[in-house]
């Protein structure tokens, strides 16, 4: 058994693990120490100074977030001097911060605001020193307002150390130091993959999505437009927590009711095209296996991962599935299949996607995703923007009478709903790939070995007549880097890879942890949302994508069969090689086949 260290915090004797910091020990024992730059899931930066405490009767306070404990340590966390010190720090933050709380995107969900309220800080006690800067609006997905940045460093840490993108950095020194974009050309001209994890971890309103709420309202008000909406799997796992319901619930039928109340003309579901994606991607996998085509096949549903691959691993593009994401499949079908079925001019259809992902805004604007003859997906709203719509419309979400979606592109299986969790695409694919390879149904559909939150996971499933289908899963692009380096090395040295199929999600936890989800999106919350999706999967009567009757119908009436010429034209895409400095496309790297 590990030897424990004896420490005393505020007179309380505590036994703690060696190597723990003062803050970790205090938090574990419910002793409050205020923090602003610290986050439980990130390495400490020691930037804000709010967590200072007195240790061993030393005259100067030290930072609890980065100070390890030692045997016999005595800590005092709350004195008159410490309280005044922290209040002064908060006043200095406010003096260099654009204080427009009522209109700020982080209002009522801002850690600086909460601390100031809790500690009784008056806004005008320190003279303002802020020099206003222009907002960085160079990105299609993410906005940066340095007038609100407090230089806590969380965004730099998540971008550099977790996602391994390195789009954000610290520039200058001392009082002139600040967070900025590498090469100072704006976030839209950087290697940023639009994952939005910087937004999730920002304690204030310095980072936020480019909003399309007003454009969507305008489309709804326009009587000449037919506005169709789809919602990603992870959305239904996030709304309950926001509106005071059991966080383990999924709320699809209340979600449909809210959308219809808001005024959308057709309310359908991205889960339908998640099932369709499995048919296209699964058929592609079987074709590669049976015809000795390049393996592994790597999933293509996550736009953050796709841009990361195009920027840092363009040499592996030929191994990435050409299947579009469920969102983009829905977008193109809304203006082709759905338009024909409903006899609506596709020029009058406005296709709206509600996604847990800021990178979906970038995906919707990719120039190649116009196979309908129009921009396939007109607007993407994040979960946060959808919540704003609900609140703007004055909807009592918790007490809404549940409704069903419109038929046509709405029915989904359990396989479709688990797309929102890391490992979910893999599990859904295996359920149908087994049948596509053997012609028989897989009896045990709960494939537990691909579930979990380890950064990189691997496993295999025995398929009669084939052998072991070897798979790997990574979530978060930092973990993807580890896995892709392994794949690249194997291919270079032997010409082969040990895996047949690889799933990568750009965000930690998968879509349940997307950059468009509500703020305060911890890994614990992501795990709870993922479990809610697995519970819904368990309770659905049909749990395999190839058994979805609406998917079968769209093939019978329109597409023909998976990977048919029309399916290839509408449901598959190609990729670009991108500059690791600007993130801009250099050249097309691989085409649909």
What would you note in describing this structure?
The chain folds into 3 domains: about 70 residues, Ubiquitin-like (UB roll); about 120 residues, Alpha-Beta Plaits (2-Layer Sandwich); about 375 residues, Rossmann fold (3-Layer(aba) Sandwich), CATH 3.40.50.1780. Helices cover about 35% and strands about 15% of the residues. The protein contains 20 helices and 19 strands. It has a 5-stranded mixed beta sheet, with helices on one face. Strands 11-10-13-14 form a 4-stranded parallel beta sheet, with helices on both faces. The protein has a 4-stranded mixed beta sheet with strand order 12-17-16-15, sandwiched between helices. Helix 9 packs across helix 11.
């Amino acid at each position: 058994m590990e030897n424990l260290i004896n420490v005393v915090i505020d007179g309380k004797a505590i036994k703690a693990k060696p190597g723990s910091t003062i803050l970790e020990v205090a938090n574990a024992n419910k002793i409050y120490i205020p923090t602003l730059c610290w986050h439980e899931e990130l390495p400490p930066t020691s930037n804000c100074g709010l967590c200072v405490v007195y240790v061993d009767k030393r005259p100067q306070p030290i930072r609890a977030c980065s100070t390890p404990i030692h045997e016999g340590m005595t800590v005092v966390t709350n004195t008159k001097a410490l309280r005044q010190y922290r209040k002064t720090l908060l006043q200095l933050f406010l003096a260099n911060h654009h204080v427009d709380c009522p209109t700020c995107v982080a209002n009522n969900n801002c850690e600086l605001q909460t601390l100031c309220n809790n500690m009784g800080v008056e806004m005008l006690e320190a003279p303002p020193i802020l020099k206003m800067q222009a907002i960085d609006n160079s990105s299609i997905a993410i906005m940066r307002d340095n007038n609100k940045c407090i230089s806590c460093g969380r965004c730099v840490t998540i971008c550099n150390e977790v996602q391994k993108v390195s789009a954000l950095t610290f520039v200058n020194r001392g009082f002139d130091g600040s967070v900025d974009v590498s090469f100072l050309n704006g976030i839209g001209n950087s290697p940023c993959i639009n994952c939005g994890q910087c937004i999730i971890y920002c304690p204030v309103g310095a980072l936020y999505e480019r909003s399309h709420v007003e454009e969507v309202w305008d489309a709804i008000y326009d009587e000449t437009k037919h506005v169709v909406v789809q919602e990603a799997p992870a959305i239904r796992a996030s709304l309950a927590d926001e509106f005071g319901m059991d966080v383990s619930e999924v709320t699809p039928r209340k979600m449909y009711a809210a959308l219809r109340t808001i005024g959308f003309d057709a309310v359908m579901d991205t889960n339908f095209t998640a099932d369709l994606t499995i048919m296209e991607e699964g058929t592609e996998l079987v074709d590669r296996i049976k015809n000795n085509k390049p393996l592994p096949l790597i999933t293509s549903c996550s736009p953050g991962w796709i841009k990361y691959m195009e920027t840092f691993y363009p040499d592996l593009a030929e191994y990435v599935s050409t299947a579009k994401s469920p969102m983009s499949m829905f977008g193109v079908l809304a203006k082709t299949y759905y338009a024909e079925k409903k006899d609506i001019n596709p020029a009058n259809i406005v296709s709206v996607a509600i996604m847990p992902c800021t990178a979906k805004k970038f995906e919707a604007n990719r120039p190649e995703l116009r196979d309908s003859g129009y921009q396939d997906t007109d607007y993407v709203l994040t979960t946060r923007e959808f919540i704003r719509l609900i609140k703007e419309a004055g909807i009592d979400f918790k007490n809404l009478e549940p409704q069903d979606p419109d038929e046509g592109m709405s029915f989904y299986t359990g396989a479709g709903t688990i797309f929102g969790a890391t490992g979910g695409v893999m599990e859904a694919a295996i359920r149908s790939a087994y049948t596509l390879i053997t012609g028989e149904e897989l009896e045990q559909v709960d494939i537990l070995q691909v579930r979990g939150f380890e950064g990189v996971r691997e496993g295999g499933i025995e398929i009669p007549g084939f052998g072991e289908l070897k798979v790997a899963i990574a979530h978060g692009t930092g973990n993807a880097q580890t896995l892709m380096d392994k794949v690249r090395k194997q291919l270079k040295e032997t010409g082969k890879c040990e895996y047949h199929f690889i799933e990568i999600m750009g965000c930690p936890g998968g879509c349940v942890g997307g950059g468009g989800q509500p703020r305060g999106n911890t890994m614990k919350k992501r795990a709870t949302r993922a479990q809610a999706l697995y519970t819904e999967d368990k309770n659905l009567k049909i749990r395999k994508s190839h058994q979805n009757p609406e998917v079968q119908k769209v093939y019978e009436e329109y597409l023909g069969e998976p990977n048919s010429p029309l399916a290839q034209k509408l449901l598959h895409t190609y990729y670009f090689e991108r500059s690791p400095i600007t993130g801009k496309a250099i050249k097309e790297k691989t085409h649909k086949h």
